[in-house]
Amino acid sequence: xxxxxxxxxxxxxALNAGETTSxxxxxxxxxxxxxxNPRLNAFVTVTAEKALEAxxxxxxxxxxxxxxxxxxxxxxxxxxxxxxxxxxTAGSRILGGFVPPYESTVTANLLxxxxxxxxxxxxxxxxxxxxxxxxxxGPVENPWSRANNPDTRLVPGGSSGGSAAAVAARLxxxxxxxxxxxxxxxxxxxxxxxxxxxxxxxxxxxxxxxxASSLDQAGPVARTVExxxxxxxxxxxxxPKDATSADVPVPDFAAACGRSVKGxxxxxxxxxxxDGLAPEIGALxxxxxxxxxxxxxxxxxxxxxxxxxxxPTYYIVAPAEASSxxxxxxxxxFGLRKTEASSDxxxxxxxxxxxxxxxxxxxxxxxxxxxxxxxxYDAYYLKAQKVRALIRRDFEQAWGKxxxxxxxxxxxxxxxxxxxxxxxxxxxxxDVFTVTANLAGLPGLAVPAGLDPQGLPLGLQVxxxxxxxxxxxxxxxALERAANFTALPGIRA
Amino acid sequence: xxxxxxxxxxxxxxxxxxxxxxxxxxxQAELNGILGWIEQLQEVDTEGxxxxxxxxxxxxxxxxxxxxxxxxxxxxxAVLANAPDRANDYFAVPKVVE
Lengths: 493, 98
Description:
The complex is a heterodimer. Chain A is an alpha/beta fold.
């Protein structure tokens, strides 16, 4: 088997058995990146030399009997995670040239466990987008294409489009990603891989460039559910540097992947049966539920009555938090500065922010500024916080009846790079199935489950109780086993 | 409720984003499209509902206080390493006071 075809688990087993080395794996992935990245644009920074040095050091640790749980595994890091000494741009011109002097907690945890970083992967600017077309480094291409129209270049989804495309094209064994409204699960589904947004507070947000702090969570994308479990175990954990980090034990997520779903009650929210839902999405959903029934689970219809208000709530809360978080980009302390000879300080701020932020980011800062402004705060922001409380309550009531909830991951398969770019609201609808988990703080796992009539991957989502990622992994692995998803993208190493 | 051009200019000013005159119309149309869509929240009955602050799931504390103690410092060069302009150990900006 070629090294780039290995799963993370397979690579770790091969390393443990002495059948390969971290240097050999790293060289294979770097070669694949050099060959395919000019087309896919998944990586924005390739740290080849550093990666090879890290791989050598990893092989030495292994030889000395000091192998960590991820020892020697080459992975990719979303360019939203601060990496000490390596440029971190968040996909924005305003952070061009920014080299963090410190390491994010999640990436520090991965390094502690022996992972090797191949480089930084592309994303929508400040993680705002569902198509990875808003990056200052240009769009990412989905390695999959339509059977009847292979020349139409498709989006990988977003915002973690670089992470998902890199993993699907076998340019890395796995990748870090982040999810504020669906940014792990939607690109995972579009690229035919797995990804989990854990419970809010499970992974530290320290050192992750902030978008909407009450919604942002880090998580992994990888080619199998078990690989996601292995990565999340290393990424997660209490961190005193993040006041919202949860001080709870991190279980053995990989063990949960092998657990039977027999006797589990699986919720099927009736409000997710949207008018006009694509028939192939509805059919896949029903198929997924049947697979779980076949393995002994019981499916139960439930009601989450405030579902239809989740996206409008999100598009008040997220821009409001973004407008506050992004106030720090002022051209004074780091990143871009834009001035004219006659500029005063205010003009410096305004020119820097106009030149540094892209269109979607400017739009969201404007919305956020408006809904927080005097006279409108109660009507918009406070109202949204109350509806958010009702959305969270809907789930609380559901947990009395079910152990997990299964829904489609996305309303459609991947779309073309030129499609859906005209109207912001049309783009926002991509997150209709994923955004509720962010609002309620719950874990959500996307798993590839089938193909649409054009041969594009479609995913299902498993939503779990707070801090019960284990049940998400059990149900996700059961779906994965039944789906036996073996289709491959056209562009791959 | 729909934003007029003057309000769009005021928001841009509050957000410290320079907006050229020819950009106002397009921004106005986009913001009104989004605001018109989120208007549907007004139909939800939220009488007596406590607003949710923070992102923690039900039953979890939203925030934790840490000990009030100094945990780092004396790293001026690291802090200033990315500054677009500096003067000694300070960030430099255009003259503010004549």
